[in-house]
Amino acid sequence: MKNPKFAKRGGSDFSRALKTRVNQYFDSKGISKYANKSMIAKSVLMLSLFVVPLLLINLGMASSPWQLFLLYFIGGLGMAGIGMGIMHDAIHGSYSRNKTVNRYMGYTMNLVGASSAVWRIQHNVLHHTYPNITGSDDDINAPFFLRFSPNAKRYVLHRFQFIYAWFFYSISTISWVTTKDFVRMNRYRKMGFLNKRNEFQREISILILWKLVYYTFALVLPLIVVPLAPWIIILAFISMHLVTGFLISTIFQVAHIMPSLEFPMPDENNTVSGDWAMHQMATTTNFAPRGTLFSWLIGGLNYQVEHHLLPNICHVHYKNLSRIVAETAKEFGMPYHCQKTFCSAIWNHIKMLRSLGKTVPVST
């Protein structure tokens, strides 16, 4: 399926006004749209939460099961923090105005076992361009046992997905660091990505090398140095990923798979109505806007509307920009979706999963 185009190629009055007002905000404050001291402190914290526990494990400091599980648990929090609060901005190019800094901070994703090259295509290109468009947004192109769009095929087992989806959310990063990157890299090559001379072969080699590095320090060395049964070490390693997978999947999913959001499909000319900015507003929601600490910990992803409209701006600025976005949206009659709390967002996500498990596809 060829990716669709938007009916309005140029920016709307809304998007032009928003761009002007956001630029005026940074000019009036005399600040950069990139990372600040808070972002740097967060980067140090999240990297430490991941690296230090694994270092202690590899130094043989975990001699009992509870110590091992605790260290891997902390490592899982750090891994989630890296994914949501460091590599996410870096791969979007919003961590620093220096491309080299962005590239190396983006490698933190490789450090935790995934591929920054695959993520750049999946997230930056396919998800950010076509959110909630079945067949184009790779975040909702789920395995057959999960249904994230009313336009996707429905199976009987989807009636229970609001119960079992959480298990698959939790094991998502285990799949990620084992097979998913390879599967998607091969699929993206067939879609026309990674088509420069020897680019696919080079990226596959880099992918294998980084995964060898990751598995060496995250699992192989612990199996050698930790004086516990191998099955305990493997179980503790898996528990680290359960923490990371649950946190990352939940945060990302509640921003788009919600009852209040739209799941538009292109017409017979493969065209989606409106322009890109209008599409982002219709398919994205914020949540927990008053949770300052919560927002800091999850990389500002509770301000998904701002992130989708302004992906080239570091997330530390989203809270202040949200007022500008909300006021501009109201002025131009645009929707501005927001869930008051994270709990309400989760509850509505559950309701959406349940609804998707009952309804037949809108289109065939």
UniProtKB/TrEMBL annotation:
Residues 66-338 form the Fatty acid desaturase domain. GO terms for molecular function: oxidoreductase activity, acting on paired donors, with oxidation of a pair of donors resulting in the reduction of molecular oxygen to two molecules of water. Keywords: Membrane, Transmembrane, Transmembrane helix. The keyword DNA-binding does not apply. Pfam families: FA_desaturase. The chain crosses the membrane at residues 39-57, 69-92, 104-122, 163-183, 204-225, 231-255. The keyword Transport does not apply. It comes from the Bacteria. GO terms for biological process: lipid biosynthetic process. GO terms for cellular component: membrane. This is Fatty acid desaturase. It comes from Flagellimonas olearia. The lineage of its organism: Bacteria, Pseudomonadati, Bacteroidota, Flavobacteriia, Flavobacteriales.
